[in-house]
Automatic annotation (TrEMBL), chains A, B:
Protein name: Branched-chain-amino-acid aminotransferase
Family named by the database record: Belongs to the class-IV pyridoxal-phosphate-dependent aminotransferase family.
Keyword NADP appears in the UniProt entry: no
Enzyme's top EC category: transferase
The EC number(s) this enzyme carries: 2.6.1.42
Length: 355, 355
């Protein structure tokens, strides 16, 4: 790596021991990457010990949610090597998210160096069981202390990391959200920004009380078309073919979604990106034409959906996990974890670094 | 006040000198109120020196924008006393905003004590010129360090303060935003949460490049009805009567809006809260039937609108500031600054405290 580390960072790395139970996103790696944007340029890209940020109480991020982030994973592969999955896709999406909130883009080179550096030094923390990984979280926040509603002139970029289990294990019960929306047309739904997630919390709290796991969001203008789950895209298997909502402008373009579309073709499945009317889908599940549904995302990979709940009634999917979801999940994980060839060139190897 | 202060806080208060040029929201008072919510209850309400917060890099607020805030003012009145304007309205709105983002409500008693305490100890900082004030910014953030998308289980509540000039001086040029939206129906537009403001930044950046000051937001579903400006409500004077968009579910219910509706009645103006089609309004301005338009809010009080810009053409208001805007602004400021009786009981006196 081109980034040298301080004795303090080396000591933190050597002294860290992960607990036995990892969960998802709750055990944080002992170091993080940090760079600062001020006076129109980036500086200070370095690894520092993980610890509290000093943020002014008037910082833009705290009041006006000027924040965007990414989620990505580094895998320990079966040959022992470490692989990052499509990091350039995350770099480009983060640039898009940053632009949407009037934040400076993170140069792709710096973004990639940052995630490679954190991955290299935290390689010894990456768990080896299938579905486990080092979850990486690049984060860009506006920190200028000023209460006027305008873009910050100071930004901080971090990459924090968390050795993690899969985000969702088992089947998911999803609830059709017919009242709240997570994002407006002309809003920020196609960017990975904090406000989308804040808007989703109320719906999730309500459905959890009903015994469900995730909200299924509908189109903001008419609430008829399926959009996505919070942080995950939606797929259904209809007559043996894959169907997923086409990008509407208020759906986040998932890296896993994109990868599955490409991968499915090579496995012999036709994929349809189209408007998906929720009531049509419920009818297709009722008639048995739709045999499977699943959510996909970086954190969750593929999570089969067992039940779709709606006010008044709910429908159950017949096969959970079904054969198509299982085949896609295995094919993707086989590439990510090095059990299969990588015909798409998705994996980028990272050499572990020792402190 | 029931809140005792530490020697350090007293020293900060005694040592602080405000610069001559205040601006809005950029000079911060030397102390702030802080309370913490953990294990289901609030504790630690106290004044502390103003300074950086220690926030974990994985805190929910930084990633998922779990933040809401308020804006309110304390005025130095002409008799030298200090008055807070309708603080209970802000307390209740903040409780609403908190619930929308699954955050704990701040008990109204604690909220009011916090703003009164900050006001009392910062009383000596409140500028005396008309339109100037101590701008108070209550802020509630979720700080649990955990990357899963769910509500925080730890919260911090702050009241920071800024001796300030009026937010907008002079006339405003507003631009009709026909593409972006700040909030979805079923979203968070009627709560004062960070994500609404983040979503608005792109529009404001674009219109500033065209020589405009603020976006005029339209209804998210059809973009036909006027909603609000970012952080301000909209009024027009049509045939000598006041018209303002009715609360749509995606408009923030402004304290100044509410106050003006009440005050206008006593000044002999009829007020109509209704759907306001933007193209109808442009035609009424063109024909001279609409004689004035203005924005109102806690920060801005009343800002007359001089121009409404649209792709292709723009319309100018004939009287800027017009007689109705001027009369309303004076009547409201007269109450706030103690030049007139307060028949509504809006002002709450605060006794200055000395460190």
């Amino acid at each position: 790596m081109s980034i040298a580390i301080s004795p303090e960072v080396a000591e933190r790395l050597r002294g860290f021991e992960a607990p036995e139970r990892l969960g998802f996103g709750s055990v944080m790696a002992p170091v993080m990457f940090r760079a600062v944007y001020q006076d129109g340029c980036w500086s200070g890209g370095e690894l520092i010990p993980y610890g509290p940020l000093q943020i002014d109480p008037a910082a833009k991020v705290l009041h006006y949610a000027q924040t965007c982030f990414e989620g990505m994973k580094a895998y320990r592969r079966v040959d022992g090597s470490i692989g990052l999955f499509r990091p350039e896709k995350n770099a480009r999406r983060m640039a898009y998210s940053a632009r949407r909130l009037c934040m400076p883009e993170i140069p792709e080179g710096m973004f990639l160096e940052a995630v490679r550096c954190v991955t290299a030094y935290c390689a010894y923390l990456i768990p080896a069981a299938s579905g486990e990984s080092l979850y990486l979280r690049p984060l860009l926040i506006g920190t200028q202390p000023d209460l006027s509603v305008s873009a910050s002139n100071i930004y901080e970029f971090y990459v924090i990391a968390s050795p993690s289990e899969a985000y969702h294990s088992g089947n998911m019960r999803v609830w059709i959200e017919r009242d709240d929306t997570r994002a407006a047309l002309g809003g920020t739904g196609d960017a990975k920004v904090g406000g989308n997630y804040a808007a989703s919390l109320q719906s999730v709290a309500q459905l959890k009380a009903r015994g469900y796991d995730q909200s299924l969001w509908l189109s903001p203008s008419d609430r008829k078309q399926i959009e996505e789950l919070s942080g995950m895209n939606f797929f259904a298997v209809i007559d043996g073919q894959l169907h997923t909502p086409k990008l509407s402008g208020s759906i986040l373009e998932g890296v896993t979604r994109d990868s599955l579309i490409e991968l499915a073709g090579t496995l012999g499945y036709r994929v349809h990106e189209r408007e998906m009317d929720i009531d049509d889908l419920l009818a297709l599940i009722g008639s048995g034409t739709c045999s499977e549904a699943f959510a996909c995302g970086t954190a969750a990979i593929i999570s089969p959906i067992s039940v779709i709940g709606d006010a008044g009634h709910s429908v159950s999917l017949p096969q959970v996990p079904g054969p198509v979801s299982t085949a896609l999940r295995s094919a993707l994980l086989d590439i990510q974890e090095g059990r299969a060839e990588d015909p798409f060139g998705w994996m980028q190897q990272v050499e572990p670094a020792s402190p």
